[in-house]
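Q: Sequence in, structure out?
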Amino acid sequence: MEQVIRWGILGTGKIAQAMAAALRDVPGAQLVAVASRTLESAERFGAQCAAPRRHASYQALADDAGVDVIYIATPHTLHAQNALMCLAAGKHVVCEKPFTMNAREAQSVITLAREKKLFLMEAMWSRFLPAVQEAQRLIASGAIGTVQQLQADIGFVANFPPEHRLLNPLLGGGALLDIGIYPLSMAAFFLGPVTQVQTLAEMGPTGVDEQAVFSLLHEGGGSSSCACSMRALSPTELTITGTLGRIRLPGRFYKPDHLIIEPMDGERRVVDAPFIGNGYTHEAIEAMRCIRAGLLESPLMPHAETLALMAVLDTMRGQVGLVYDADRGVVA
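A: Exactly. Output:
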């Protein structure tokens, strides 16, 4: 019988609720504890997801001896601080994307995880979905020849007040960190490490980027063209084009349940690849597989790539003049 993995969730927002729901569909996973900054919020969330222990502080969850791994679901600005706290307390960590605010913070978290010999993974859930894994398998098999280009967009209309986390610079607001990370991460996943990036952005009244476009060159050849917006509802599609055809992840490419193969010579075909539960299930399954195997990182989202992508985001933000308190060394 496989080892039961006991989960704690740090934070009680929308993404925390999604992970709590996902864990119900993961064999061998037990959600045993949750934490918020207030007992009222922790009690409410704990009752909703049937977690037996509800902590009124993040530190209390980190110190909970009955927890094996903690999923961090707080705003971006708290990720590094929360991850360091949990690792220092001896817990494995799965940290929501973007992993941290910048590469400097990411390095500090990764360094501590390695010193403590604890598992650490960025929760880039799209990478672990069956459709994305199947697309990668097809590319590796030569189904579309040598990959040359990738196009991806993601966009919605953020009708929120300026203090909302998506628009608030004090909470790491802006399109690049919140949603631009999706096409960036997927581009690196399919085409390899980024060697060059050019970024343009339109800034909003709160000082964060509300929409941006960026072009990437990749190690070994190939280029990507990506866009992210909090001003427009975009198709949110991803297309990978090779010398012999293309693969499409249509509509909400970050949560695909099928893919389309369009060879240059041959018939177009649709490959169904449904995900379990709400989709977040698959990153939890991968984390548990790694923990049981004694791994410190996932080969699907390794530390070096998380760090490299944070450095790319730093470069992108530098190109558009987007600076956060974390870049100035101010602690959230």
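The chain is about 35% helix and 25% strand.
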